[in-house]
Amino acid sequence: MTLIKVAALRPKVNHGHALEQLDTAIFRAGDIRGRVPEQIDVEVAFAVGRILGSWYSEAKIGVGRDTRVSSSALAEALMAGFMSSGCETFDLGFCPTEIVAFGVGIERIDLGVMVTASHNPEPDNGFKVFKAQGGQEPIAHLLDRLRGALLENVRGQAALSPKSPIALPLIDEFVERIAEPLDLDWTKGPLALNGLNGTASLVAIPLAARLNLDVRWITGEDTGLPMAGPDPLKPPLAAQMSAFVRSSRAGVGVAWDGDADRCVFFDEAGALVPNAYVMAMMAGHFLKDAENPCVVYDPKLVLSIQKSVGRHGGQGVRVATGSAHMRAAMHQTGAVYGGESSAHHYFGSLGGIDSGMLAWITLLQIIESSDQTLSQLARSYRREVAVLSELSLQVDHPEAMILDLDQALLKGEGCLEVNGKRETFGVETHRAYRLASGVRFSLNPSTTEAVMRFNFESDGDPQHLLEQSDDILQLLLRHTGPYQASTPTLALA
Hints:
By secondary structure, this protein is an alpha/beta fold. Helices cover 35% and strands 22% of the residues. Strands 18, 19, 20, 21, 22, 23 and 24 form a seven-stranded antiparallel sheet that branches. Strands 2-6-5-3-4-8 form a six-stranded mixed sheet, sandwiched between helices. The longest helix has 16 residues, at 462-477. It starts with a strand and ends in a 16-residue tail after the last helix. The relative contact order is 0.10.
């Protein structure tokens, strides 16, 4: 029997009560995410498993988890819920999120759930749900239906399950799937890697061995995430990684987030390479010999990847931000590659899933075949398009801010970009502006944090982009609250 470990994740209400105190804010556009145990505990995990299991009672269910402290207990409770509904349940163990998606893609399992809060810090945790593509309801609809069911169902916790889940290790099969078709002879020095105590090393170590790569780890897999969190783009972690790349005399540095589905790159000098340029490199690489020359991308930063698609005679399809939207678009279009500005990379060869592992290896292929260093490659894209580092702000009243922006930016020759077209209407929370100055400015509410994210890009001179964007920043700051820790500044990425 499988014991559910409840001591460290004590529920916040008494047994036998309905889930009337369930915080519905944990339901996001593409996943479930919240604070443990205040918002998510083992009772919530068990209920999620029990309800999903009742809807997919004939399905094979797989559950993976990241390395944060609460993940094992939540995974065990989740699996107990599935088994209580009669589902054949498989334990995928500690693994990157892409392993769960891979298991669904190769039909080892019909439904996969990853216990993770991705790049969010402790003590956040949650659930990412994967199911087969095709004529089924989108994940967002499924999660909304699950939210309603949780509110209606009686709270019920089981400390014991009458049977144990079936162990299903998939990492070796995934490594072979990635490595087997590759022809990679890396000659540009050691590789500096950072798994931030997450699950990246569980795949990266055997993958590096399979490809005979010389790797140096600053932080591999361990219990407990860094105090600064598992987001490799956070300034303290990025600075630490930059120094490690230089001290290792590495040809490339790679850092993943906690569940290893996002990866960021550092050049041989330790400089962080903007993901807008990485997306453009990837698009060009996959479009060269593509039977279906199509790539998909999100609307945050588009200029660099659009230029790359144009050079290779490809078709670019813009879709809404978020992995659920990106995976659906990959499936619908049959695209060879998809890029998301948050450092997610999606691959047609893997059935449209995002993979931090294949992204890493693909970039090595691009660098090796170019006969250039990563800094030289990035410099060629930087000459075409200037990009500023993403800005995240807590905004008191988003609609008021948007109306203010419209008045300031649209009164002249600026225009509002909607679904790639130049239109002006209403108040939208996802929007982009193209200004007469050549600056493109986009804003998007985060799906994982209570912030708005702002991105700036332009053709041509980087200093011009900085100067034009500063006026917009001052306008934005009028709509932030006193909780803003310090006055942010804009900087070139």
